[in-house]
Batch of 2 targets.
Target 1
Amino acid sequence: MKVTVVGAGNVGATCADVLAYREIANEVVLVDIKEGFAEGKALDIWQKAPINLYDTRTVGVTNDYSRTADSDVVVITSGLPRKPGMTRDDLISTNAGIVKSVTENIVKYSPNAIIIVVSNPLDVMTYAAHITSKLPRTRVMGMAGILDTARYRAFLAEELNVSPKDIQAVLMGGHGDTMVPLPRYTTVGGIPVTELIAEDKLNAIIERTKSGGGELVKLMGTSAWYAPGSAAAQMVEAIVRDQRRVFPVCVKLEGEYGIDGVYLGVPVILGKNGIEKVIELQLNDEEKQLLETSRGHVKEVMDALDNINAANA
Ligand SMILES: NC(=O)C1=CN([C@@H]2O[C@H](COP(=O)(O)OP(=O)(O)OC[C@H]3O[C@@H](n4cnc5c(N)ncnc54)[C@H](O)[C@@H]3O)[C@@H](O)[C@H]2O)C=CC1
Ligand SMILES: O=C([O-])CC(=O)C(=O)O
């Protein structure tokens, strides 16, 4: 299996590293626009192979998409990360152009690839990649839900003093403050979380999760990469190993949850064809309302992208 990661910055290099050391692909091609940057990162990861004992070949290139030809999966991480004081939506004008041109190059050389978008604002960059690629929605998706859920699970594990491995959860909606937590579907070793934690503590964890990305931006001056890079690699693994994992993934909704044409995080089954199935949960009225708010926000940013594209046409 061949996997390309576009953007050799913090998230892209972390993703490539996880793909290599866990031998998720035979070959990982790292692409960046900055001369020599991807080559250097790929060489460094390759030189770690004899120490950490893996044989995934890692190769770096500067903007040479011919080297990415026939990739099975492509992860797009290219684009600006936010700085303190910015929202993810503030990145739209710069990142839309980057995601569009990268996607054009990807489909030119790997028409059968499955594309995983990571660049922000995530839901709308998934939209950008989807309309540019013209691929079926099952093959263009965004990574955010695994990360948001992981933050929620990590905070719960800390609060309950249990292993994060035993916490199962799902979050839905856009990647941002309007994400939709689903405590009803959160369990700790099979036990509903509501039996183990006071409501106010759970609510505080949900609020912290919603601004989990911003918490890290404030601490580091740029956004996170270890968990995001690993989350993208986990999606690649589910696809290349046809694991049929159940993850929250951003996809174009086509009638599911009563929503049509908006890109939102929902639980899906991920396997060799990409999105094998969108799972429709029976949401209660409060959850439906939260999802509607999230839909409205993402749609506004999608409209902003349409305006940018119209102005550039
Ligand atoms: N979906 C999610 O949950 C997350 C999304 N992100 C987003 O991922 C993106 C990358 O974040 P970082 O890796 O921290 O940024 P970074 O600045 O470390 O790396 C981005 C890389 O993209 C490269 N690049 C820019 N234009 C390019 C082009 N046209 N072709 C190829 N490479 C290009 C840059 O040279 C740079 O090396 C940001 O937009 C960030 O907001 C970050 C974390 C989580
Ligand atoms: O917060 C950011 O800008 C990056 C991101 O999406 C995250 O870490 O959740």
Target 2
Amino acid sequence: MADSAELTTKGLRLEGLNKMAEGDRNYLISLFRTIPGFPAKNILFRDFVPVLADARAYALLINALAQALPVSLDDFDYIGGLESRGFLIGAPLALKLGKGFIPFRKAGKLPPEVYHQEYTLEYGKAAIEIEKNTIHKGDRVLIVDDLIATGGTAAAAEDLLKQAGAHVAGYSFVMELDGLPGRRALGDHPISVLMGMPA
Ligand SMILES: O=P(O)(O)OC[C@H]1O[C@H](OP(=O)(O)OP(=O)(O)O)[C@H](O)[C@@H]1O
Ligand SMILES: Nc1ncnc2[nH]cnc12
């Protein structure tokens, strides 16, 4: 496996991050990493964990997501975070926006009763669940995650909400892997991404 490399603005497609002052943006971007060959051969693993360890960068990231919301605050009731990286940004964003947070967990972690949905990842298969008593018919949920690749995880989140008679209000991602059909899996929902990059 090759060494990890710092992300630079070169090669990035800036969307939500365009709104940030250049100095802050370059600082934030310098704390993302790319690890080639992890967790499988031919995968460029895009990693934002170093951002979390840096108080300034973490705050910049959550502020950027709040500035780039794909819908207005009145258009959703909850933020839904996708385990596990989606928790690390979804929960602080929910607190900042004054919304409740719903964890979409990997299968087998939540007590019954749950809604259950299987899906396919860029490098494997998985299933996610939500607790039946945390979500109700008609609820509108803004789904938050660090990254959209194939869109399988984010689409599974919508399938889970449908089982409850609830709705996706929109999707908010930090990173989008360009060249993969992620957005096509999400229909017409409003989507915001902070930046796109090669898959
Ligand atoms: O668009 P997709 O092809 O579905 O891929 C994106 C998903 O993959 C990663 O999560 P992962 O399942 O690796 O779990 P983790 O957050 O627990 O690391 C990432 O955090 C997204 O949730
Ligand atoms: N290339 C990638 N890097 C980080 N997380 C991912 N999840 C799915 N694909 C990924």
